From TrEMBL:
Single GO BP term: regulation of seed germination
Protein name (database record): RING-type E3 ubiquitin transferase
Keyword Repeat among UniProt keywords: yes
PROSITE patterns: ARM_REPEAT (PS50176), U_BOX (PS51698)
Gene3D superfamilies noted in UniProt: Leucine-rich Repeat Variant, Zinc/RING finger domain, C3HC4 (zinc finger)
SUPFAM superfamilies in UniProt: ARM repeat, RING/U-box
GO molecular-function terms, A-Z: ubiquitin protein ligase activity
Pfam families linked to this entry: ARM_PUB, PUB10_N, U-box
Pathway it works in: Protein modification; protein ubiquitination
Organism: Musa troglodytarum (fe'i banana)
InterPro entries in the record: ARM-like, ARM-type_fold, ARM_PUB, Armadillo, PUB12-19-like_N, RING-Ubox_PUB, Ubox_domain, Znf_RING/FYVE/PHD
């Protein structure tokens, strides 16, 4: 069986040659099934290469009539039919791949720009079908005369057919190259020209643009992994930037996310009524970390259904139906429900299996001059809308900045350069919760860039960020504002500036006490960053961080506990920090965490904290630890199984305790005084 399309490179057409010992009857059955799959693609719109696709499907329909008639009669097939059937099977496998690619959602622009390749493939496959029919011994195969004559007609038409790029497609492609040239020269293209191309591709709305961008990005990442030519990567970058520009400039509303975001409470209520089995993959029976929907409407985890398809099964595992195509469409609704369930159940959200992490350093420079020009113009347009647009336009602009800056370094630099930071900060005080939420999330992404952090501080944004943490209209804005402070705290100068603000550290500690899971996590890591500035330690202690951190040590969220232990270890490095920790109930919790944790870094942080407490607190601390019998086995375990650094710290702590034992023995002999 041929591999499904998600296991091959787009527009590559692999096929499996039937074995020489396969009988004609088996080939006939396989051909009928293959032709059925191709005919199932008739309902697709095929906005590009429409005529070629329709003609190919028409020919396959005529061939299927012949094959079905032969199979229905049940007569013996001559052995000589195997050669023609085998060649036809190979040609139809390739045609199925090509038609699926031409019909694939999100691939329209790329298919257009690869029109010459696609036309050549159609030409070759039509000729291959004609050749396969030519070698079939039609006179020796029992079929109705009129159907046999129809096959002869298809054979002759296929041989005479000239397949090329359709005039409208060629015009759209020329327009695309012209617009890319305008981007390269810093010229904003005419919106009428943009609309004409999108209409030709049947790209009607914001969602369609986003689908195209996602597909092009997927191709780009695959091209990097495959080591493809820079020319292809540059074209992909240009086309992504074109679609981003169109999405930004031509469409006034974000259709997909806003409606679902406006009902968070309803979604939260709904998850309590969801049957957990509905969030499990029907194949693996595990929670779906990357749910995708197939042609039958059933949803599976991507890893499981991909494995199913790769094994050659082209049916739905639940319904048993044959799949009209093997496209996998992400199911964001199930993913959101699964995330809500994990949050409510206080379990970590599992990451999708098999998804490689993207190397963002590859996005630091534009892929082409056209991509750079389009991105800069899109950024300028968005900043203008932030400044003078209606509330709907401002919200959409902030949302676009949020998306564009999420995982692209060059986009961040362009948006900062265009002056987006002051306007995003201005909308922190918006009375519209969605504008504020998108503005804060967008600024969080920009704060990951050095120029973004500089722009925030120079615009006087620290106070506004702290203010949103205190009185955000939505909890998501509060969480993201804390993340802004975290990224700012990565800079030595800015962490000092944050510490000088009277409200900054107390606000973070309050978030640590009362915030949501994500808010508390962002507060912890921000406090850790602020502790890199020694002047901030006393302010953090005065704000009550030790009791707040100690309470987290009893949490059932292992990642929060790990982070809290790391902060306590940093605090314990100083005498003031040691004194504050010893006045709390943190020490038994640290010992218990060292014993129970499976995190290597967590255990090392725990032993680091205990060692610092001993070094700064003296024999009283050592005596306190010596009275905890569960500590010694944990330390010996670290010596033998931990990292070299953790083992070294564990040995030092053991030496402290052994030295105390020696001193106690000498005291009993009257040789020393422990007082």
């Amino acid at each position: 069986m041929p591999q499904p399309s998600d296991c091959r490179k787009f527009l590559m057409l692999p096929a499996v040659q039937p074995g020489a010992d396969v009988c004609p009857a088996a080939l006939l059955r396989a051909l009928v099934a293959l032709a059925d799959e191709i005919l199932a693609l008739r309902s697709n719109p095929f906005p590009i290469h429409r005529r070629s696709a329709r003609e190919a499907i028409r020919q396959v329909g005529a061939i299927l009539e012949f094959l079905a008639d032969v199979r229905g009669r049940g007569s013996a097939l001559p052995a000589s039919a195997a050669v023609g059937f085998s060649e036809l099977h190979v040609a139809l496998q390739k045609l199925r791949h090509l038609l699926r690619d031409c019909a694939r959602p999100g691939a329209r622009l790329w298919v257009l720009m690869r029109s010459e390749l696609v036309s050549n493939e159609f030409q070759v496959l039509v000729r291959s079908i004609s050749t396969a029919l030519d070698v079939l011994p039609l006179a020796s195969i029992d079929a109705a005369p009129e159907i046999t004559e129809l096959v002869r007609l298809v054979r002759e038409q296929a041989w005479r057919a000239t397949v090329g790029t359709e005039p409208a497609d060629a015009m759209a492609m020329r327009s695309m190259w012209s617009i890319l040239g305008q981007f390269e020269n810093g010229i904003a293209p005419n919106r009428i020209d943009l609309r004409w191309i999108l209409d030709h591709l049947r790209i009607r709305n914001w969602n369609d643009c986003s689908e195209e961008i996602a597909f092009l990005e997927e191709l780009f990442l695959a091209s990097l992994d495959d080591g493809d030519e820079e020319e292809e990567a540059a074209l992909l970058g240009s086309l992504m930037a074109f679609m981003v520009y169109c999405r930004v400039v031509l469409f006034d509303a974000v259709e997909d996310e806003k409606s679902s975001e406006k009902q968070p409470k309803a979604g939260a209520r709904a998850v309590s009524h969801v049957n957990l089995d509905h969030l499990r993959c029907p194949i693996s029976l595990e929670l779906m970390t990357d749910p995708v929907t197939i042609a039958t409407g059933q949803t599976y985890d991507r890893a499981s259904i991909s494995k199913w398809l790769k094994s050659g099964c082209l049916t739905c595992p639940v319904t048993g139906e044959k799949l009209a195509n093997d496209s996998l469409v992400p199911n964001s609704a199930i993913r959101n429900l699964m995330e809500q369930f994990c949050h409510e159940a206080k379990v970590p959200i599992p990451e999708p299996n098999g998804k490689p992490k993207r190397d963002l350093t590859r996005t630091a420079t534009p892929l082409s001059a056209a991509a750079a020009g389009a991105t800069r113009m899109a950024a300028a347009f968005l900043v203008h809308k932030l400044a003078v647009g209606t509330n709907q336009e401002k919200n959409k602009a902030a949302h676009e900045i949020r998306k564009l800056s999420k995982s692209n370094i060059f986009n961040r630099a362009c948006l900062v350069e265009a002056g987006s930071v002051p306007w995003l900060l201005y909308h922190f005080s918006s009375s519209d919760p969605w504008i504020q939420d998108n503005a804060v999330a967008a600024l969080m992404n920009l704060s990951k860039h050095p120029s973004g952090r500089k722009a925030i501080v120079e615009a006087g944004g620290l106070g506004l960020v702290v203010g949103v943490i205190r009185v955000a209209l939505r909890v998501e804005a509060q969480q993201n504002a804390a993340a802004v402070l975290f990224y700012l705290s990565s800079d030595e100068v800015y962490r000092t500036e944050i510490g000088r603000m009277a409200e900054a550290i107390p606000t973070l500690v309050e978030l640590l006490r009362e915030g949501t899971y994500r808010g508390r996590k962002n507060a912890i890591v921000t406090l850790y960053g602020l502790l890199q500035c020694p002047d901030n330690l006393r302010k953090i202690l005065a704000a009550g961080a030790i009791p707040a951190l100690t309470s987290i040590l009893s949490s059932d969220r292992a990642d929060l506990v790990n982070d809290a232990v790391a902060v306590l270890a940093k605090i314990a490095e100083g005498h003031d920090g040691t004194t504050a920790i010893l006045k709390s109930s943190a020490v038994p919790h640290l010992v218990a965490f060292l014993r129970s944790s499976t995190s290597r870094s967590g255990r090392e942080n725990s032993v680091s904290a205990l060692l610092s407490l001993c070094n700064n607190g003296g024999m009283k601390v050592v005596s306190l630890l010596e009275q905890m019998p569960v500590l010694m086995p944990s330390l010996y375990s670290l010596v033998t199984e931990g990292s070299p650094q953790a083992g070294k710290k564990a040995r030092s702590l053991l030496n402290h305790i052994h030295h105390l034992h020696d001193q106690e023995d000498l005291a009993m002999m009257g040789l020393v005084d422990l007082q």
